[in-house]
Design a protein that fits this description.
heterodimer; A: alpha/beta; Rossmann fold; 6-stranded mixed beta sheet; 4-stranded antiparallel beta sheet; 10 helices; B: mainly alpha; ABC transporter involved in vitamin B12 uptake, BtuC; 14 helices; 74% helix; 1% strand; globular
Chain lengths: 287, 346
Amino acid sequence: MSAPRGSVVERGAQDGSRMNADVRLSVEQVSYAYSPNPSQAPIFTLEATSFQVRPGEIVAVLGPNASGKSTVLRLIVGALQPLSGRILLNGAETHLMEARARAQKIAMVQQESQLLFPAKVWEFVLQGRHPHGKSLRFENSDDVTIATNALRQVGADHLSDRWMDEISGGEKQRVILARALAQQPVLLLLDEPTLHLDIGAQVDFLHTLKKLTAVNRYAVVIVTHELNLAGEYADQVVLMQKGKCLRVGTPASVYQRDLLEQVFQTRLTVEQRVNGRPKVSVLESSE
Amino acid sequence: MQPLTLSKVAVRCGILALVLFVVVVIALKFGAVPISLYGLAKDLIGVLIGHSSNISSEYGMIIREIRLPRIALGIFVGASLSVAGTSFQAVLRNPLADPYVLGVSFGAAVGSVLALIIEPHLTLRPEIAAVFTPLGGFIGATLTIAAVYLLGRYHGDIDSKTLLLSGVIVGSFFSAMILLLITMLPSSSTRGVAYWLMGDLSTPMPPILGWVLRTGFFAGFALIYLTASDLNLLLAGEKEAMHLGVDVKKVQLVVYLAASALTGLAVSVSGSIGYVGLIVPHLMRMIFGTDYRMLLPASAFGGAIAVVIADTMARTVAAPSELAVGAVTAIVGAPLFIYLLRRRLA
């Protein structure tokens, strides 16, 4: 389960000296406030957050519940409008993009799709071609080739003719990833993609993601609770707590025992391993 | 991987059109005056392919003046209600959504009855007066779906059970309104309470209304069909659809308005025929799958076939007296609704 090492990962480590021209996604001093009623004080605020993602790079947004991780993702995908600051994808603000144009560039992988009626796996993956055409469209042979390749890339081509509600949770996550790949995006966003998976399926999924990110040069932002998986597979981590962005950097630089203990409110140890990746172990509660 | 193509849709629609034709011929045969099925089919095919311009004079008048207009009305009413149900199911993400169950049909009926009451007090030009009732139906249907949608929302999401319950309550309220309003209609009106609450195809309508119904159906269907690919994605939820490039708000608005227009039109000329928008889409899904690019035209044909069959039964099972067509659809539809609801809960 060791991650493929290469220029992608090494560049992630050279934090200070990166060229701006190479940036694909740039989150610049973005803040947001949510209040259910405009006359009331906001019940959640996201303070100015900044980070950048380059092609071939995985950035993990980490933090406990209600830290603002998912808000960051929804701001990036353009579903929310920043209160201040801006989010640029290849130089264009994401929330100003038209829905179809945005879906040609940004693909989102969520925890699970709730289908109203059963669909075959291949039908589901073909949906990823929807942004690339007119509103009413029938898929052509190019779409079929792209969808077939996407299924092959995630190692799920054998599932093509199965029903979506017949396959396992791990298989379903791969199929959802395949649909995102079929969109041929430049930016891939994943919201807790491994939440309901067992540890083997989690590692499998992230290993596939890592490989595809390097090969297809996606810029990837992944929101997760899993400290160790993020530490293993991410090139950068963004550590969040209560709407504040506390630290941005390589896992080794961000995973400091005191900091993580304070953020996650639990006692833990951080071990820096020989491959440069940190490993976090939770200690028994002191109480 | 064999995606749906336009030619597949066309071939299947061709088959459905053929089934509809056969059903129409059989429906033309049934009635008080016996007509030979063979002679009728031969005459009709002759007219259709242009070899002759006449249906045999023995029964031509009955066919042309009585049975055919009623069947044509059944075709467009059935297709409209079925397409409206199929569309509501996608935008509301509820497979039990149907204009009748959601109370939209009753809202359309209230709108139509109000239009009938107001119309004599206004001095309208005949062509505007003709579309006044369907317009009332459309406005009634639109307001009702908006109300049911708002009542069925809970914490920003549509709650399936709350939605259905809201529909039933709104429907019950409007049924009472219809009973009340009917008393205000001029006594010359041939449309009674049973017409508005159960649906009926026996009332003849002016030709211009037939034209409005046909044009309205094709316009409404075209608008909804243009969103068919988007509706496929909406089945997985609003957020997912948005992430796949669907302009969710726009699609919802177009489909709500068009489906309300179809319901309003159908109800204004036939009353509240129930469950067509529920039974037909379910049958069509079993046969053709869930892809809306196929399902929408299949539902249109299926709705037409179902209502023509139901009306033929309504005309014949208790002859010489007639049942309301809505009674036949409800006898089949209500148990099916219960079955689907139980299956969903399980």
